[in-house]
Amino acid sequence: MKTLAALALISGLASLAGAAPKFELGTINGAAFRIDVPENWNGGLVVYCHGYNASPVTYKGDAASPLIAVFTNQGYAVAQSGYAAGGWAIQEGAVDTESLRRYFISKYGMPRETYLTGHSMGGFLTMMLMERYPTVYDAAMPMCGPLAPSEAFQSRGAFDGIVLFNHYFPGVLPDPTKIPADFVSGTGDKALVGKILEALDAAPDKSAALRKQNNIKSNKDLAGTLAFLVYLIKELDQRAGGNPFDNRNIIYNGTLDDNLVNSLIPRYTADPHALAYLREYYTPTGKIAKPMLAIHTSYDPLVPVSIPNTYATLVELAGTQNLFVQQFVKHDGHCAILPEETSKGFSELVNWKKTGARPAGGELK
């Protein structure tokens, strides 16, 4: 196997002290990465985990994004992996993120402190890595992440969302266990969104029932969410090697007619190996050893707040509730957290780590 150093493509990192901001692009075991080191590097490191993407993320040599600048402006170096696979790449993301962290140490030395953060699926990965590597990171900030067992929120959210939509609007979407590879072109398939939206707008009573079921404000939000879920379920079936979803013991409620729906809705049996894969990647325990500050929007059509609220219960059961705080920002949308809000949350996390002053839960002000 090639060494990590041999795989790195260095972009002008001759010296770290007293020089202009620098970045490094490279690849480790098939996963692209980017490292940014600010001019005023304070010796600390932020490891960033990106969210769900249909294909592996790659990086360019232009200026750091506003998100990354949030951390470099505070003096921290930032390392981010693109993962070696797209989709629900929790398995690959965990390995590739840890490989990048170790590469950073081999190249730049041990950071005086290391923080972990990420958006959406990257927030989920942040939670997982904090549980699996309790001594590696000093603190973490998952943002807009589904902080709950993967089986629970993907079965009772994504899968049931498609099952119920198909009950009300047969023929628009395929059977969720038999989605053709070419049915949806990507996570933001505009043609599919339009098709779903047209069906929803044509049946106000049915669409209102589905919006209530999913706590979604508009047909547009619901259509966009459903189109993404079709892609997600198709990709999970392929990744897990079968259908990981089971609804044989589920009683649906909040529909137009609960008795009728539960009598007519199709029942599906999960493939044991596929279900085991979904549980492995990942079922959280709440067992964290360092501070974790989670940030979510007050309205998120893709990851409703009921999902990350689950983690508060998990940490209580694990006896680690003093290490977890959840805050919200008053915005609509998935991951609609502004850079200045990210900066404020990160400052609170750093202060918590350094002084022990636990931030208050509730609104991030």
In short:
Helix content is 41%, strand content 16%.
The amount of helix comes to: 40-55%
| Quaternary structure | single chain
How many whole angstroms does the radius of gyration measure?
Answer: 21 Å
Shape: globular
Number-wise, the strands total 10
By secondary-structure content and strand pairing, the structural class works out as alpha/beta
What is the typical, i.e. mean, pLDDT?
93
Strand order across the biggest sheet? Answer: 1-2-3-5-4-6-7-8-9-10
Estimate nothing, just give the exact number of structural domains.
2
| Unreliable sequence segments | 1-18
Tell me what you see in this structure.
- This protein has 365 residues and is of the alpha/beta class.
- The protein has two domains: 4-149 and 283-363, Rossmann fold; 150-279, no CATH class.
- The chain has helices spanning 4-7, 66-72, 90-108, 121-132, 150-168, 190-202, 204-214, 219-240, 258-264, 272-280, 309-318, 339-355, and strands at 8-9, 22-28, 31-37, 44-49, 77-81, 113-119, 139-143, 292-299, 324-332, 362-363.
- It has a ten-stranded mixed beta sheet with strand order 1-2-3-5-4-6-7-8-9-10, sandwiched between helices.
- Strand 4, helix 2 (66-72) and strand 5 (77-81) form a beta-alpha-beta unit.
- Helix 2 packs parallel to helix 12, helix 5 (150-168) crosses helix 8 (219-240) and helix 6 crosses helix 8 (219-240).
- The longest helix is centred in the middle third of the chain and has 22 residues, at 219-240.
- The protein is globular and about 60 Å long.
- Mean pLDDT is 93; it is low at 1-18.
